[in-house]
């Protein structure tokens, strides 16, 4: 009986030892699996770091570009500040005044025309000016230029009927377009030092009393 009991005990111990050994083996196996998973997972995550770094760098570049945009707008401001300067120049330049056309009050005068914007036609003369009525003189030719300028008739298409003195530094001339001698204008001009002859008034005549 005692031998049978001992045999049963040994058998139970063996079974118990097997179970314990099996359990220990399972635990060790689990530890190995878990450890491998942790290390393997850690290695998988490491390559992701450079990609995240690249993404962060890309995001940083985008942020810098976004922050630089306002500076581009700031650089455009000086161009806007130049506009007032142009406006000042426009204000300094006098605006053209309207031409004054009125009904003639003298015999044979249909209209009186005064243009406040008339200027001197320029001159090649220097020194003290003396009005000349010699047709080949520079002064006479500049008088003709002033008559053409005042009437708008081209110099090459204009007939000069006469030019006479109207004081030491003024003159009067009567002209017509060559295409119509009955259309006549009496032009008043005056000398301006440094500027030449300048028209002061144009009279449109009812008829050309010098074409007879």
UniProtKB/TrEMBL annotation:
Taxonomic lineage: Bacteria, Bacillati, Bacillota, Bacilli, Bacillales
Keywords from the UniProt entry: Membrane, Transmembrane, Transmembrane helix
Cross-referenced Pfam families: DUF1510
Residue ranges, annotated region (Disordered): 44-132
Domain of life where this protein originates: Bacteria
Name of the protein this chain belongs to: DUF1510 domain-containing protein
Biased composition (Acidic residues): 73-100
Keyword Transferase among UniProt keywords: no
Signal peptide location: none
Keyword Membrane found: yes
Transmembrane segments: 20-40
Domain DUF1510, residue spans: 113-205
Polar residues: bias regions: 122-132
Source organism per UniProt: Domibacillus iocasae
């Amino acid at each position: 009986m005692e031998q049978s009991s001992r045999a049963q005990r040994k058998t139970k111990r063996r079974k118990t030892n097997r179970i314990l050994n099996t359990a220990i083996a399972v635990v060790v196996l689990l530890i190995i699996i878990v450890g491998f998973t942790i290390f393997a997972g850690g290695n998988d995550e490491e390559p992701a770091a450079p990609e995240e770094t690249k993404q962060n760098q890309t995001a940083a570049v985008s942020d810098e570009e976004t922050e630089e945009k306002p500076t581009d707008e700031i650089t455009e401001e000086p161009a806007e500040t130049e506009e007032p300067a142009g406006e000042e120049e426009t204000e300094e330049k006098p605006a053209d005044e309207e031409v004054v056309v009125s009904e003639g009050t003298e015999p044979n005068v249909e209209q009186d025309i005064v243009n406040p914007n008339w200027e001197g036609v320029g001159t090649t003369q220097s020194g003290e000016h003396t009005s000349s009525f010699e047709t080949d003189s520079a002064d006479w030719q500049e008088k003709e230029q002033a008559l053409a300028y005042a009437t708008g008739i081209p110099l090459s298409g204009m007939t000069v009927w006469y030019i006479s003195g109207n004081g030491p530094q003024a003159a009067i001339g009567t002209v017509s377009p060559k295409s119509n001698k009955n259309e006549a204008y009496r032009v008043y001009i005056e000398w301006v030092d440094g500027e030449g002859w300048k028209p002061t008034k144009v009279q449109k005549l009812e008829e050309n009393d010098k074409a007879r």
